[in-house]
Write a structure and sequence with these properties.
Chains A, B, C, D: InterPro entries: Bact_transglu_N_2, Papain-like_cys_pep_sf, Transglutaminase-like. 4 copies of one chain form a homotetramer. The first copy, chain A, is an alpha+beta fold. Chain A has 5 helices and 16 strands. Chain A has a 4-stranded antiparallel sheet with strand order 3-6-1-15, with no helix packed on it. A 4-stranded antiparallel sheet of chain A has the order 4-5-2-14, with no helix packed on it. In chain A, α3 packs antiparallel against α5 (169-182) and α4 (158-164) packs across α5. In chain A, 48% of the residues are buried.
Chain lengths: 281, 281, 281, 281
């Protein structure tokens, strides 16, 4: 599937500082950046960094003098997603996980799975099969957590959301991840551009490790699961912040877009009548 | 310096399960494992895993049948530490950090630096020089947090400790790390064997990134800074747990030892009269 | 019903100090203290205080010199409980509550009902009738929270327990109260002596305000609901601490007893087949 | 001193419901309500309630049909304040407090003094004299906590504020109270109308129990200490909410005013050069 994605961000730097942006589409074996435009106005020195496991790709901009700054990113992306039969999405045993996958069982800043062990097992432990467990917890979040803009902030974590039951996509993802990890299912945060997200914005959801693959889940159910362009994966939002800002800076505006550049897009959601998993490779 | 380290751990597995231990001395350019003995009784399949950045080295044991299990580790280690003149321990700018170092600015499960920004800057922001800042916050922890066995548990975090002001080495390290990150100084958790720790146990302290090097700090001031053998570094205790246990398991006993196998060991602590940093390479 | 209750507590005062005990059976219209013995050894000046709404009765002991101290309390109590038909346990409207009852809708230290509003309403809001709601939430706590001695401490609150799902009687009561208040049902903490509690100790449960009466609930289901002698009611454990200690003091021992001094005691628990509420008057 | 206070609040009730307002000036021995106007438009049944210790006086309005509602309160108040010499503001011993005063040592929803014991004693325990301790902690809050509208919400507590160091008057008061209680100084929340508050709004500050009197403190230092009209005192904001709303309700507007109706008002703040306490009787 081909996507055309755009984002524009503006800041006012009142002091020299550094801006790290995590808005570029990730390059993976199956996500190809066909065309890409990255503009910074006025000109400041920019540098691309790639994290250890090539899980995100970020741009660091060095603002050496107070200035407004405007960043524009446009890209044409082709990505492949794969449908995996439910029967192959078995629970991977701890003894069979590699070191990187194991690290996605650890609790993290916004996903305190260590505090949710009993809750997760009381609620979902009895369910047969790891894929069914993740589907069930995703549904539980969807039905119980109210999507409410402005109800949470950048410090809100899964431990809060499981009780307060309101939040935005970031909070839905953190809670899904924390519940998975508490059930000994590795899970990681996914940020991306999302087709049909309304109002348009960056989106966050999560991937769970099932049958040796990272399967995508979105407890908000706001957009088609196959309408995503991956920006980054990481332990949680701490690893994948859209923008990290150092200096005396005012955020002034944001605009995000994601269009499908192909015909015949068929929106996909999980459907118990015909169950299969979806993976971004 | 040469060290002889030992640890013995016993568990009772009431079900099949998996045990992941993080008790082996790390192999680094300057920490050499001269001899090493690793025994598991009775025999179960074991496998060594190394994390992405070679920051820890762990052993996974697959217990396929209920059983008591006894692990014994003994090693002869030679490590080098370097003294770095205080004048070289300048504050590294965000624009000069690589992707891995940048990740140690992120808040993590037990080090919620995002919540401590104002506090850290109110308390230590005015101090001149990054090395002095870290020394000052280490002293503040030492003077204000009471070392009190049993006062905290595996869920206690820096956010708790900054207020409750009691804890053990793990809590002292988490608070040190969180304060550093809130001051835009990358910091990471360090677990190791420690000479002269009383009662003998695994030890935790932290490293701050100063002048392009990871400098060691220990807010407990319980042992000489140059009497450590590194087991692992990571974001916090979530990355470097001594033991991760999967299954129905009872912990039964632990014994830890660390002796210096060299003569002429001169215990080292930071001393304002003759200031220099210490790094484990 | 007649009860013989006893408690003995010992402390070591290493400095002069004050000890406030909340271990005396409350005097209410229907709970009569037939006989009572209160001994303090060695002699220190003691004073009885009664709280504003006669909801607790406490003894303040002024230890003016370092000393061990041993307190013994024995009493013969007669109390009446009333069975109220389920049909009379209607939901009282906010417009019909007096000022004191209204105060039991407020969040308190250990019962942060303001944080549980959505959760409580998602879980129990659909249930018909206030009595059924409280029975349902009591059952939910009983089935999901593990009774685990030592799993919590004096700072643990309902907000923790709803997620961590382990605790002792105090935690079960706090969670019950917080859920009730979040459902706009006034609820208060109840401490008392309990017949058949094993091991013997002080007990905590809660009362919900239904049909204009305070109905007793115990999510631990450890003892018969009609086997209690009331010591105090209050917003939560902060108001009704068994002992409040001021000074440099070591707690050394406790012993609690509660026997029925009548024949023909018929243990009572709520039973959906024959539903009625129980009130301590 | 005479004050003219006004407040106007508007709500939209989308369902029948109940509104409890705590905006009336309290009647105390030394605060006289000379004239008072209370209007509800359209007409709904209203009832005045007074809490147990006459610490607040609230109006309950029963909205029996969906409607907008507009409340207007105007009053002419005469109150007396007393200056108490610093020498009389001694620390009251626990053995000399009555039951009501003792209850203001308990931790409460937003003032978790039990968690701040070590911190408060580390920071202020060494200071000589209870009045000086409270002045010092008030100053510490003033200098370290940033007054930042919108930085906190109705769930923010002293435990958050002590670390996050931003908030509004309510948060400043909660932290002051929690620190006092942790130092065994009874303290309570004070809501009122405040002269010279900008922008005009209800104000919150706190009283500490010194020398047998309730002395006023305001860590925001936004207004003169002698320019207040007391609405209520209580354990914290949970007891003294300006408005408690039951039903499907939208808050639409608020307007608050407080003018001095006397000449020769001399604004008063604590001044170390001429130290005396101020009490609202």
């Amino acid at each position: 599937m081909k996507f055309k994605v755009t984002s524009e961000l503006s800041y006012q730097f009142n002091s020299p500082g550094t801006l790290i942006l995590n808005i570029h589409a990730l390059r993976t074996p199956d996500q190809t950046v066909l065309e890409e435009l990255h503009q910074v106005e006025p000109y400041f020195k920019s540098q691309e960094l790639v994290s250890a496991h090539a899980e995100n790709r970020f741009i660091r901009i060095e603002i050496d003098t107070p200035s407004p700054i405007h960043i524009k990113y446009e890209a044409l992306i082709e990505n492949a997603t794969a449908f995996i039969p439910a029967s192959e999405l078995y629970e991977v045993q701890v003894k069979d996980m590699d070191a990187l996958v194991l690290s996605y069982l650890n609790p993290s800043r916004y996903c305190q799975s260590d505090k949710l062990y009993r809750l997760a097992n009381n609620m979902f432990g009895y369910i047969d099969g790891a894929f069914n467990k993740v589907l069930a917890l995703t549904d539980w979040i969807y039905y119980n957590v109210e999507y409410l803009s402005g109800s949470t902030n950048s410090q809100t974590s899964a431990y809060d959301t499981v009780t307060e039951q309101a939040g935005v996509c970031r909070d839905f993802a953190h809670l899904g991840i924390a519940l998975c990890r508490a059930l000994t299912i590795p899970a990681r945060y996914f940020t991306g551009y999302s087709y049909k997200l309304s109002p348009p914005d960056f989106h966050a959801c999560f991937e769970a490790y099932l049958g040796g693959k990272w399967i995508i889940f979105d407890a908000t159910k706001l957009c088609p699961l196959n309408g995503l362009v991956k920006i980054a994966t990481g332990r949680d939002a701490a690893d994948t912040a859209i923008a990290s800002i150092f200096g005396d800076v005012l955020f002034t505006s944001i605009q995000v877009g994601c269009e499908i550049a192909d015909e015949n897009f068929v929106p996909f959601q999980y459907d118990k009548a015909d169950l299969k998993g979806l993976a971004y490779l």
